[in-house]
Description:
With 277 residues, the chain is of the alpha+beta class. The protein has helices at 2-8, 89-104, 135-147, 180-196, 237-251, and strands spanning 73-85, 109-110, 117-123, 128-131, 152-154, 156-163, 169-176, 209-217, 231-232, 258-260, 262-267, 270-275. Helix 2 (89-104) packs antiparallel against helix 5 and helix 3 runs antiparallel to helix 4. The chain is globular and about 75 Å long.
Amino acid sequence: MSKQGSRLVSYASSDEGVEAKLEGPPKKKSFHSPLTQPRKLPPLSSKLVVATPANNPALHQGRVRNSPHVDGRWACHVFVPVVSETDEQLGRVLSSAFQGAKAKVPTLRPIGLDDGRWELHISLSRPTFLWTHQREEFKNAVRRVAAAHQGWTLSLVKFIKLENDDHSRVFLAVQVGAGHEQIGALTDALTPALRAIKQSEFYPEPKFHVSIGWALLERNGIDKSTEDFPTITELPQDVIEDLNRDFAPQLCRPSARVEVEEVCVKIGKDVFRWGLG
């Protein structure tokens, strides 16, 4: 700010800075005297400065932001929550399966495991973006979809591996069995709301699932691993086969089923929930 201020001041020539030797009364100091210093403005309060999110993989579990940050634009995601305590049948199976996979792939990290509970989700939309003025409209659309559909009993049937769109991460996932049609009905009902805000609808042939683990992948032969987040070339298929052999039968037990009762939308860091039916 001080540099800008200095350009606004027209300093006098060098002759005016020398003591006058001519007779007569001394000249009055000009407003633009070199002795006059431009006033420095106080620094702007940090409360008024909006920080731009840093695109630093080390701060985001090795992930790289694919879409640049834009003020007034919010990341958005619609999902169905699936919750199970680790001392319940489904929670015990997921915990044992994850530990078995991690023993073979040490870089694997859990998703949704927190303080003795699995808090997972089934995506109903792709990761999308809303402008500030679209948030309330979209929340109302999700609320109406939730109210128009009943809850149901969900089962998970087998372990699969999936990659994200840019192939930078691989996921250890569990595919949905009972409840697949109900989830499909929810995604179809959300399509008009997504089209209304010029966002892509859900995948044409979705594999509804919950993800319980992830790892960073090498991309195009380039290893961007860090000390905390090393990469792998792939999640071996034999790991998936072993999990299905050892744990898929346990997933099929009636005691491993869970009730689906609500739909959620996450906008920025805020999560909004509405009960089904």
